[in-house]
Amino acid sequence: MMNSWQLWRSVLVKDLRIAARRRSDALNPLLFLLMVVTLFPLGIGPGPDILARIAPGIIWVAALLATLLGLDRLFKDDYNDGSLEQLCLLPQPLAFTLTAKVAAHWLLSGLPLVILSPVLALLLNLPLDAWWALALTLLLGTPALSALGAIGAALTLQLQRGGSLVSLILLPLFIPLLIFATSAVENAGMGLAVQGQLAILAAISVLTVTLAPLAMAAAVRMSMN
Amino acid sequence: MTQSTNTAMPLLHADRVSSIRSGRVLFSQLQLAVQAGEIWQISGANGAGKSTLLRMLAGLLVPNEGEVRFNGQPLHRVRDDYHQQLLYIGHKAAVKPELSALENVFWQRRLGGDTTATAEQAQDWDVLEQLGLLGLEEEMTGRLSAGQQRRVALTRLWCSTASLWILDEPFTSLDVDGIALLQQRFLQHLSRGGSIVMTSHQPLTDTQLPLQQLTLNSARAEVLL
Amino acid sequence: MAFDSFQEFVQMGGYGFYVWLSFFLTFLVIAGVALDALIGRRRLQRQSRTLQRRRQRLSKRQQRQSSPVEESKR
Amino acid sequence: MWRWLHPYAKPEATYRLVDKLLPWFAALTAVSLLVGMVWGLAFAPSDYQQGDSYRIIYIHVPSAIFSMGAYFGMAVMGVIALVWQIKTAEWSIPAIAPVGAAMTAIALFTGAIWGKPMWGTWWVWDARLTSELILLFLYVGVMALYYAFDDQRTGAKAAAILAIVGVVNLPIIHYSVEWWNTLHQGATITKFERPSIATSMLWPLLISLLGFMLLTISLVMMRFKNELLRHELHRPWAQRVLGTAEESH
């Protein structure tokens, strides 16, 4: 019999392969993020001081919104073509299998954000001391975004137009991440310690990534109705 | 509405199951006992609850009343064992349009629990050849015709080791040859002691199949809301 | 008693507007929730009656279908 | 004719129980709220710093506490519904959510009204007000999710899952907002948390707390009765209760 780990890997590989063949789906949220970040200097004025001050907030809020955009493709296609019900019918635990899909989502939405962060920092005139903190907060925080987002996506599977509802139920849950991440970046810019915030972010991510699959599995089974 | 009181313990037993969907009683107190080596055709008008019954048998839906038993044990208690023995192909056939036919076959085999799987295997080619898909194996499945896509989905019947097949409208969009091929495969499966529960609007043409019928009678359905 | 006269009680040491506004709004919200529950019950009653009528129509039809002899007599 | 539907279902027993208890709870609510409010408004002494404006505390604090309490209760019901598959627990969630949201709304606007004379502005990003605002969003999410489903059973199950996810997050949100508040405002006077409160002010507050607890429970019971009837509308007992049952059947 196939063990859970083998199944996990093949789900991940399959999802990445499908994403590779539909590149625009993965790219659009990133382009959206880039454009939102561009809009702020245009709306507020290009003064470097004020931009640097609000940069962490802007980048993180834009990252939250970009995550929401990409959630649609997380389970919906698999739900519509019947793959998801096949995953429910496997002897391997569903909660664990679903983490493979979350991992694929993170590799396609969270990781590119981390890679893109120097560019964003540059655009918003973030001091050099702060951009590595920004990259670290994104690296530590985005797994939690993907995992929480997956709960929202799974809960709204049955609904035809779940998009705005997903934002409604998820954004309040994102708030702690936003608070600790932006504060870490701010502190780093002022040359203060950031270990505390980063530790909390890591703790939130670990907690979310371990607990969220249970809620996801319950939501997916509920959607089989 | 009730049939078959065999003395031997049935492989799969739906014991007085009822379904209430969006305020209507689709069926109630329904009895179905499937023995090893039997093939059952569930028939009934549109909306009579055929797919619902199959999903209940597969364990995707919990009956509103009654219970489904596998080897005498309630499904939720023997879920993993049951799912190893089960192959369910629903209305939506879990074929990924972004993957090639060969990749889909590989993925289907993985879902079937095959561990030895590497990307390309001789047996995959055999199966594709039998189903008349040779020469299309590198084509994206989304670009194939509906009947060809169905054939890709049905390759699972050739790869799986499951003893119980639950098939929702397997003949949909297949041509005459395809239907004949599938019925041959049914005979093979039955001769090995396997069992099949299926729905179909078409009458099965192969007279050798020891077909048993269960008709869902929607005229008796109660309107609740 | 913290106030000497009713007038003073209403004025709340100059904060009367704020205090009474919050009490009034609170009352309004609670009354709204309670009223909504009562209206909900009315709605359920209406739904139940519709349901009964539908069931009657259906059982009549079924009787007619099951006894065609009576049908022809009429 | 209805033989396949449980002859005596659990929801009916639940309904009878709630129906029997509700008048008692309602009466106790009325008494304790009346005592608490009259005592708080007329008899408790005036605060030496805030004058009589502090009397808003007698609704602000209880409603804030039970807005959280109701959410917690909703999550407990969600766990019961999902773990033991008890449908009446499932149906209680749409009964609790609007009441909790109403409590949250009360806590929010009483806080804002209190802020106006104290701070000169209707809205301050105070830790508790911000937490209440986020709590309101959480309630709105649960209710929106429930009403988005055509099938109420699925909707209730989805709401149950979301309520549980929310309650796990609630302490984290609460802590992070408090931390954020101290970070950005420094050690300013927090207007709601007084270091100590005089006993003469505390007693009416405790009675108001009791009153709001009973009020929350009574309102939930009222809505819960409706939810039970709504899901059981096709059963004879619900029709008898609603007075729409027919004689011949």
UniProtKB/TrEMBL annotation, chain B:
Record GO terms (molecular function): ATP binding; ATP hydrolysis activity; transmembrane transporter activity
Stored SMART domains: AAA (SM00382)
UniProt GO BP: cytochrome complex assembly
Keywords attached to this entry: ATP-binding, Cytochrome c-type biogenesis, Membrane, Nucleotide-binding, Translocase, Transport
Database matches in InterPro entries: AAA+_ATPase (IPR003593), ABC_transporter-like_ATP-bd (IPR003439), ABC_transptr_haem_export_CcmA (IPR005895), P-loop_NTPase (IPR027417)
Gene3D superfamilies: P-loop containing nucleotide triphosphate hydrolases (3.40.50.300)
Annotated ABC transporter domain residues: 12-225
Keyword Membrane among record annotations: yes
NCBIfam families according to UniProt: ccmA (TIGR01189), PRK13538.1 (NF010061)
Protein name, as recorded: Heme ABC transporter ATP-binding protein CcmA
Organism: Idiomarina aquatica
Lineage: Bacteria, Pseudomonadati, Pseudomonadota, Gammaproteobacteria, Alteromonadales
UniProtKB/TrEMBL annotation, chain C:
Keyword Transport assigned: yes
Bilayer-crossing regions: 17-39
GO cellular component: plasma membrane
InterPro entries in UniProt: Haem_export_protD_CcmD, Heme_exporter_D
Topology of the protein relative to the lipid bilayer: Single-pass membrane protein
Residue ranges of the region described as Disordered: 50-74
UniProt entry keywords in alphabetical sequence: Cell inner membrane, Cell membrane, Cytochrome c-type biogenesis, Membrane, Transmembrane, Transmembrane helix, Transport
Compositional bias annotation for Basic residues: 50-63
Pfam family, one: CcmD
Taxonomic superkingdom: Bacteria
GO BP annotations, alphabetical order: cytochrome c biosynthetic process; cytochrome complex assembly; heme transport
Compartmental location: Cell inner membrane
Similarity field: Belongs to the CcmD/CycX/HelD family.
PANTHER family listed in its UniProt record: HEME EXPORTER PROTEIN D
Function summary: Required for the export of heme to the periplasm for the biogenesis of c-type cytochromes.
Protein name: Heme exporter protein D
Native source organism of the sequence: Idiomarina aquatica
Designated gene of the protein: ccmD
From TrEMBL, chain D:
Keyword Signal: no
Superkingdom of the organism of origin: Bacteria
Keyword Cytoplasm on entry: no
Residues annotated as transmembrane: 21-44, 56-84, 91-113, 133-149, 158-177, 197-221
GO cellular component, one term: plasma membrane
Physiological role: Required for the export of heme to the periplasm for the biogenesis of c-type cytochromes.
GO MF terms, alphabetically ordered: heme binding; heme transmembrane transporter activity
Compartments, as annotated in UniProt: Cell inner membrane; Membrane
GO-annotated biological processes: cytochrome complex assembly
Major location category of this protein: membrane
Family statement: Belongs to the CcmC/CycZ/HelC family.
UniProt membrane topology term: Multi-pass membrane protein
Protein name in the entry: Heme exporter protein C
Protein keywords: Cell inner membrane, Cell membrane, Cytochrome c-type biogenesis, Membrane, Transmembrane, Transmembrane helix, Transport
Lineage per the UniProt record: Bacteria, Pseudomonadati, Pseudomonadota, Gammaproteobacteria, Alteromonadales
Domain Cytochrome c assembly protein as annotated: residue spans: 25-184
